[in-house]
C-alpha cells in the first residue's frame, strides 16, 4: 500500500461517515416529529374478512395469482422398477 492510497481511502471513509451521520440526523428529526398514541396496537390480518390470521389465508395470499402446476401428479403415474 502506498501513502497516497491510504490518504485516498481515509478521505472516502470520512465522506461515507459524514453521509451516514447526516442520514442518522435526518431520521432522528423525522422521529422527533412523530406522535405516539396511548392506545395499544392491534394486529389486523388484511387477507381475511375477520382480520384474523389463518394458515389457509396465508397460503392463499402467498400463491394468489400464481399458475398452478400439476406436473407432480405425473410422477405418481410413472412406472419404475
What does this structure look like?
This protein is mainly α and 81 residues long. It has a domain at 1-33. It is built from 3 helices and no strands. The protein has helices spanning 3-33, 55-63, 72-77. The N and C termini lie far apart (65 Å). The mean pLDDT is 81.
Defining key terms:
81 residues, mainly alpha, 3 helices, flat
Q: What's the arrangement of secondary structure elements?
A:
Blueprint: H1 3-33, H2 55-63, H3 72-77
Number of continuous helical runs: 3
Q: Which radius of gyration do the C-alpha atoms yield?
A: 28 Å
* Distance separating the two termini: 65 Å
Would you list the SSEs in sequence order as H and E?
Answer: HHH
Low-confidence stretches: none
Quantity of strands, as a count: 0
Mean pLDDT: 81
Strand content: under 5%
Report helical residue fraction: 55-70%
Tell me the major beta sheet.
Answer: none
Q: Classify the secondary structure makeup into a structural class.
A: mainly alpha
Shape: flat
What is shown here, in short?
The chain has a domain of 33 residues.
Amino acid at each position: 500500500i502506498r501513502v497516497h492510497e491510504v490518504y485516498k481511502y481515509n478521505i472516502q471513509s470520512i465522506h461515507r461517515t459524514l453521509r451516514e451521520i447526516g442520514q442518522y440526523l435526518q431520521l432522528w428529526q423525522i422521529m422527533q416529529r412523530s406522535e405516539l398514541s396511548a392506545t395499544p396496537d392491534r394486529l389486523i390480518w388484511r387477507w381475511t374478512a375477520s382480520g384474523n390470521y389463518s394458515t389457509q389465508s396465508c397460503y392463499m395470499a402467498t400463491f394468489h395469482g400464481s399458475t398452478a402446476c400439476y406436473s407432480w401428479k405425473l410422477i405418481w403415474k410413472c412406472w419404475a422398477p
